[in-house]
Amino acid sequence: MISQIEIYNFRSIKELVLTPDSLNAIIGPNSTGKTNVLKALDLVLGEGWTTKAKVARELFNDPGQEVKIIVSFSSPVSVDTNRGGQKEINSIELTMALTPEFTAKTTCNDGQTFYEQAAFKKLCHFVYIPSERNLVQEMRVSQWTMLGKMMRAIYENYVQHYGDDEKLKGDFAEAMEPAKTFLEADFSEADLTFKKFSETFIKNCKKNSVGLANDFEPSLDIYNLNWFYKTLQIHVKEKGNDLSFDSEEVGSGMKNLLMLSIFQTYSELVGDKVIFGIEEPEIYLYPHAQRALYKNLISLSETSQIFYTTHNPNFVSAARPQDVIILRKDVEEGTYFLEKSPLFSKETAESYWHKIYTNFNNERNEIFFSNKVILVEGASDKVLLETLCSEKWDVDLDECGYSIVECGGKNGVKYFVGVAKLIGLDDYYAVWDQDEEVLHADDLLKEVLDNEKGFEFLPDMESALGIEKGSGDEKVLRAHEWASSINVADIPALFSGVKIFLSENENEE
Question: What is the dotted CATH code of the domain comprising 2-124+309-330?
Answer without folding.
Answer: 3.40.50
